[in-house]
Amino acid sequence: MPVTRSKTVTPAVSHSSRKRKAESISSDEIVVKHLKRRRVGEPTIASDQQWLKKAMEEFRSLKYPKLTDRYYKVELAKRYLPLFKRPTGDDAYFFDDPDKARRFLAESNVFDVPMFVRDGANYSVVDPESTTRPIEQMFDILLANPDETLEYDDEALPTADQFVKNRMGDVAKRFKQNESWVKFPLNFPDIPTHTLDHAVPSFIRTPACTVLHDLFRAQLDVNEEHVCDCLEPNIPNCGHEITRNEFFKLTTAWVYWQGTTMISEPGTITPPHWDKYGMPTHISCLEGEIGFAWLVRPTHGEHIRWACDEKNPTGPWAFKVLRAGDSLCMPSGTVHFVFRRPAGKQTLGFAGHVIRKQDLAAWSKTLDLELSIDAVDLNGENEAERHSEKSPHQLIVPPLMRQVRKLIKAVRSQGLESKFGGKKRLTEALKLVSKIEKKMVELDFRA
């Protein structure tokens, strides 16, 4: 619903204008507060608080055997949900128009809190007006191979990350035939669908948001003779651009980072985390309701404390419900908690990663922090990876940093610093790249 302005309010040139007067509309819409630091929209959504209250009541009523992973996640939800508060005016950006969100990302605005966009979801591959649910459409159109296998975390087992596989046809049948609560719900947070267009919201489609795509294109578009098979790779001194293992790992990562499909049953929980490799993330909801909470402006110390012990949350948390049609984009290092009401409905979402040109330094800073917290066991790397010859970070971070260094050099030589947030941000990014590269050399990842 568009904002209705009073006659005394001067129309703004863009959403990013911090000169706008305060606006107010009904309690179910957005109230815009004029702050010294930035102009943002503050939600006064009573329904979100009611939704959260019901979710807490529903999770409190659940009982599970103590040795199951489901017990751990439900207990985590019971501990976290009471901490979630409605966001204040400085905790997030809110847009009722995807075009305004797009202009905001295109400009050199500070992007350090999540942004929520009403009607920002991309419905290019599903029809919300169809009598067939979007989830069923996804299974019928994009996930149509019944013999394809899906891997998921079996929460009935005693520990986390106990993955099992099931046929796509069997999973689709379960989602189509049973839409209500199940004791051990299925959660597929990142099914790669190999089609970028359907996952990316329109407001992300701006030249300012192409950095990640540019880095991968430059690094993966190489000839065979530039792939290194040296016993002791020394890129670029050995005359090569990327090792074979780096190429393989980057190719796999790129399949997921471009865009994935999120399909979940009621009551599923994704414990608090920030996305690996410090990636900024966009999420869209196309069916159902998704609870999304984030740690508000954590300090360096809070980031580290949280990473070391997720069972004892610290710092203020804000909360928002994503409903069908809603999208969000969160900056690097956003610690977030995702869940669905046990008495709710199945949910369908799209997600992917994006890096703005203006945010190279912010991304590099988060990546450096991630490497500092734990050089090996980061955000879910398992014991097998810990004892492998190379960790995923060793294979992904170095080639990305090589390309960032090349990109900054090219930007400077062409005088394009303003498109990347200015000389100061680029200088900071380059210093962080050097710091990360040094850290990758110094750290011994082997057990």
Could you tell me the number of beta strands?
18
Average pLDDT, rounded to a whole number, is 82
Measured distance between first and last alpha carbons: 56 Å
Structural class designation: alpha+beta
Specify the number of helices: 13
Strand fraction equals 15-25%
- The number of domains is 2
Instruction: Give the uncertain stretches in residue-range form.
Output: 1-44, 376-388
Give the CATH H-level superfamily of the largest domain: Jelly Rolls
Q: If strands are numbered along the chain, what order do they take across the biggest sheet? A: 4-5-16-13-18-11-8
Oligomer: single chain
User: What is the name of the CATH topology of the largest domain?
Assistant: Jelly Rolls
CATH class annotation of the largest domain: Mainly Beta
The helicity comes to 25-40%
* Radius of gyration over all CA atoms, rounded: 22 Å
- Outline type: globular
Biased composition (Polar residues): 1-15
Region (Disordered): 1-21
Protein name: JmjC domain-containing protein
Describe the structure.
This is JmjC domain-containing protein. It comes from Extremus antarcticus. Helix 8 packs across helix 12 and helix 12 packs antiparallel against helix 13. It is globular and about 60 Å long. It contains 13 helices and 18 strands. Helix 3 links the parallel strand 4 and strand 5. 38% of the residues are buried. It folds into 2 domains: 217 residues, Jelly Rolls; 133 residues, no CATH class. It is an alpha+beta fold and 447 residues long. A 7-stranded mixed beta sheet has the order 4-5-16-13-18-11-8.
